[in-house]
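PROTEIN DESIGN WORKSHEET
SECTION A - STRUCTURE
LENGTH: 372
TOKENS:
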């Protein structure tokens, strides 16, 4: 059951989060990234948090309650997420040092180690603290804010399951309280919007597993139709989020998807068991962690190549507050093709990063825990 649930997490994380978030972060005037579904796909991070709460409850809840050491649990989780994150921070640091030494010579306008590139942000990134600040913007691997707050959720889960049924109930209620605070737009140091977003969704995910346990022996009527319906509701929500701010948080429709698909009784669940989804699920976390750097590198290389070669694929954008950005300026069809090529590059890098960094680090943490 535990291996089954972990694979479910990987497949769904890929299908509903990692790829969508990667598309969301491609800056372009035209193409697939301008679809409402893609423009709102940053909401899929909430889906990730809900799913994570479900899987942690399924994989470790009973073991922690039975006395599995909290230190070992946290070492396994840190060994799963921190090494690849640290490598990506190092990659961005190499870029920053390059800009500082040779930026002017190669035509880059950025000032090294200033603003969100400053050494303080580098330290914040290395220590995985971004999610605890009111502004989570950070040059050194901007995706890491979600990892930082999820580590907090792991600590809360360990403490909750140490307390038995009362502790778990408290964690679920804390999730609802955080959801209300997030809904009320609370955003303070340490109790940031990112923290509330994670704790609320993670707590709901734990609640989803409790529901799943209670209905473990029951059948879902018209299971395929139910699966299609809940996924359609989630996709409709994300599409609305790409146009306007929805009235409810994404964590709520995410719970419907997880509760229904976790039963694996319909055709959609069967589709997700195919080998291609297994591979995509395998590299899902790696895609999430490396996509920012890969997209950043491609955008800057295209900008410099355009200057040297006299063509325009990427242009600089200057904002009134002094900020700068870059965006793809191709027409719809070539922009879509270029965006798909960018995602292809992300997948290639993710496969190598999984083989050489993520999986060896995960195995090391398992061996370390086993030897304790």
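SECTION B - SEQUENCE
RESIDUE ASSIGNMENT:
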């Amino acid at each position: 059951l535990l291996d089954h649930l972990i694979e479910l997490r990987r497949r769904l994380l890929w299908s509903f989060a990692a790829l969508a978030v990667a598309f969301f972060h491609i800056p372009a005037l035209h193409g697939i990234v301008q679809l409402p579904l893609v423009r709102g796909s940053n909401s899929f991070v909430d889906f990730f948090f809900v799913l994570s709460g479900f899987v942690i409850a399924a994989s470790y809840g009973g073991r922690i309650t039975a006395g599995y050491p909290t230190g070992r649990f946290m070492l396994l989780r840190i060994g799963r997420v921190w090494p690849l994150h640290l490598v990506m921070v190092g990659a961005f640091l190499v870029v920053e040092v390059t800009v500082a030494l040779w930026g002017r010579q190669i035509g880059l306008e950025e000032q090294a180690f200033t603003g969100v590139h400053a050494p303080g942000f580098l330290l914040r990134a290395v220590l995985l603290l971004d999610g605890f600040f009111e502004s989570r913007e950070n040059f050194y691997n901007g995706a890491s804010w979600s990892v930082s707050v999820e580590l907090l959720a792991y600590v809360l889960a360990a403490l909750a399951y140490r307390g038995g049924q009362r502790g778990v109930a408290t964690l679920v209620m804390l999730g609802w309280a955080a959801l209300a605070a997030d809904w009320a737009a609370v955003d303070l140091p340490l109790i940031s919007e990112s923290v509330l977003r994670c704790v609320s969704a993670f707590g709901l995910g734990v609640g989803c597993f409790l529901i799943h346990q209670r209905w473990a022996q029951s059948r879902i009527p018209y299971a395929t139709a139910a699966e299609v319906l809940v996924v359609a509701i989630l996709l409709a929500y994300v599409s609305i989020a790409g146009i306007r701010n929805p009235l409810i948080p994404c964590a709520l429709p995410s719970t419907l998807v997880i509760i229904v698909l976790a039963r694996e009784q319909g055709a959609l669940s069967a589709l997700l068991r195919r080998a291609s989804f297994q591979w995509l699920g395998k590299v899902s976390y790696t895609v999430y962690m490396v996509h920012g750097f890969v997209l950043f590198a491609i955008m800057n290389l295209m900008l410099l190549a355009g200057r040297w070669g006299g063509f325009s694929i990427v242009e600089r954008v200057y904002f009134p507050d002094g900020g700068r950005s870059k965006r793809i300026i191709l027409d719809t069809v070539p922009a879509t093709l270029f965006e798909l090529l960018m995602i292809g590059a992300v997948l290639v890098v993710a496969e190598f990063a999984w083989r050489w960094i993520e999986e060896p680090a995960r195995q090391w943490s398992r061996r370390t825990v086993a030897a304790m």
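SECTION C - NOTES
The two ends are 25 Å apart (CA to CA).
DSSP finds 14 helices and two strands in the chain.
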